[in-house]
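Appendix B. One record, verbatim.
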Amino acid sequence: MAKDTEKLIRQLSLISYLMAERRPVTALEIRRDVEGYSAMNEDAFARRFYADRSELDSLGIALTVERPVDGVAEQENYSLRPENFHLPAIAFSDAELAALQTALTLLDGKFAYAEPLRLALQQISWGRANPLHAPDQRSVGLGITASADGHDLSQRLAKIETAIFRNKTITFDYYTMARDETGTRRVDPYHLLFQGGQFYLLGHAHDRGALRVFRLSRMQGKVAYATKAEHDFKGRPDSFDPRAYANRAEWQFGDALDTGEIWISERIAWQIERHFGRFGEVQPSGTGGDIAFSTPYADRRQLAAWVLRLGEHARVLRPPELEREVSERVELLYERHRDVAGGRPAFDLAPPAAPVAAREGPDRSSNGSSSRRADAAIRPERFARLVTLASILIEAGRAERRLDAAEVCRQMQISDAELHEDINVLNVVNFGGGSYVLYAEIGENGEIEVDPEPYSDNFARPARLLPVEAKALVAAIDLIGEHLPEGSLASSREKIVAALGADPMEQGLHVADAGGDDSAVARLASEAITERRLLRLDYYKPNEDEFSARLVEPYALVNGREGWYVACFDPEKGDVRHFRLDRIRHAEVSETPFEPRPEVNPAAEVDGWLRTGEVRASRIARVWVSPERARWAREERRVSAELDDGSVVVELPFKGTDFLVRDVLAEAGDAAVLEPADAREAVLAAVRRLRAPAVH
C-alpha cells in the first residue's frame, strides 16, 4: 500500500476515533486503537503522529492538546472538538443556493479551481438540492474565466498553490519583459493574484531581497521546490496585503517616481472619476465640470500612454517631466505617421530578418472553454475527496438507496479506477474492535451498495472546507461578482466567510476587480433582466466621442477581455448589441415590459469576440512596433514579420478606425499603422489635433 494511502487511512481513522470517544485520550490509546499506528515502534509512532497532527492542523482540523502540569509528553491528552471538523450549518435562502448553483454551472470545467469548487459546493449545500444539477443558464455568460489556459501553466499553478500552502521556497526560470532577459528566481511564495485574465505570483524574491510580482505565463520550464524540507519559511509577513497589488493601475507597478496631475474634460470626467478615481485623487478644475486627476506613477511611459489614449479630453498639468514625455511621444507619433511622396512612411523600415509565417500571440481560445479532465489545474487534496465521498455514501446507505457508480464518478470528477481506490480506502477506516465507518461495494451492474457502520455518524455531517476548497468557493464568487440577475452572490459570500471564521482570500488567492465594470449599473441591468423590462441607457461611445440614448431589451450580463457588458436586443437597430458597463453614464429600468425573443442568444458571442477581441467583419491593419516594445507585441499580438533591427510588424483586427486610433495612440509612438491607408490617415488626424495646442 502506498505511503500516502496509509497516511490517509491513519488520519481518517484518527478523526473518527477522537470524535467517537468524545473524551480526551492519551497517545498510548491512539497507538493501540487507531488503524495504522499499532504496528509502529515508539519512535516511529511519535514521528508519524506528530506529522499527522501537523498536516491535519494545516487543513484547518486542529486537535486539542491538554498537557499535564509536569509536562510529560506521554501523558498528553488529545481530543477533537466537533466544531473543528464539522462545518457550521449555513442557512442559505433558495435564491442564494440558486446563485451558487449558477456559479458552478458557469465555471465547471472552465476554472482552474473547478474541482475543489465542486467539493466545496457539495459540503456547503448539505441537505439541499444538489448544486451539481443546476439548469442551463443563459442570463450570464463568461468569456474570461480564471482558467489555467494550457497544460504547462496548469502544472505551474498547481505546484505554486501547494508551495503557498506548505510554506515551501520555489525556484523557476523567469523571462523579465522590461529587461528582455531570462534568469533563475528563488522565491518564497505568498499569494496568487488573478487579474486581467492572467495569474500572478506575489512573493519574496531572494535575489532582490524584496517582494516581487511574477506573471505565471512568463515562467519557463518547471517550478521546483528549493529544498526537501517540510517547510522553508515561516509564512508571509503580517504587513503583507495582496489588495495593495490588485488595486494598482498599470502605471503604478513598481516604486513611485512622482505624482502626475492630469486635466480631464467634463465630457469624460464622470467616467474617469468612477473607474480610475481609486488610483489617485480627483478635484474640480475650473468653473465647469472639468476635473484634475492626481495619481502616483512608477512608469512615466505607461501614464503617458494612458493620457494619449484619452485624446483631446486629457492633458498633463504637471510635473514637467511627464509633460515632456507626452509631448515628445506626440511628436514621435506624428513623425511615424506623416507620409512623403507616394504614400510611403516618413521613416524607413528595417529589412525583414527572415521571411516568417504569421505567428499567433498567446492562444486565448481555451480561456473558458471546456478543458480536458487531465488538464485540471488545481486538484483538491485526496483527503477532501475522501471525506466528501464518505458523506455521499453514508447518506445513500442510510436511505437504503443504491448509487450509480458512473454518476458518482461524474459528480466527483474522478475516474472509475479512482472511485474503486477511494472506496477501498474508506472500507478500512477504523479504530479497532470492529469500529468501522462504512462498507461499500460496487456490483457487477455498476451500482454501489453501502452499509453504514455504527460510527458513520462521524462523517454524516459536512466537514470543514479545506483551505483550497474555501479559496475556490470565494474566488468563484468574486470572479462573477454582482452579475447574476437571479440573485446576488454577496450575501452568500458573507455567510460563507462567517461560517469559516476568516476570509479565504487572505489565504493565498485574490481575484482582482474586473476592468470595464460598474456594480451599480450591473444591479440595475440585473433587475431589468429578471423583471423583463426595457432598460434605458445613456451610453458613451468613445470611438465617435458622443453620447446616445438607447431603450433596449436586456437579456444577459457577459464578460470579455475588456470587461463586463449587458447584452441587449436594440429594437432601433434590429439586432443584438453589447454595451460595456463602464461606458453607461446613466441607466434606468423602465416600467415597460417586453416579451423575450426566442431567437436571441445573448451569450452567443462568449466564444467569439468577447474572448478573442476580434469582432465580426473585422478588417486587418498592419502595424509596425518599435524594437523597444516588440517583445510585448510578440506576447500579445499576431506577428507577421520580424525586422532586422528587432522591430516587428503585427496584424491588428479592427472594425472601426476610431477604435484602432485609440489603440495606436496608447502605444505612445512605439507603433505606426502601415496599412490600410484610411486607418493611417485617421491616426495622423488624431495626432494633429493633439499637436494643435503645442503648435498654436
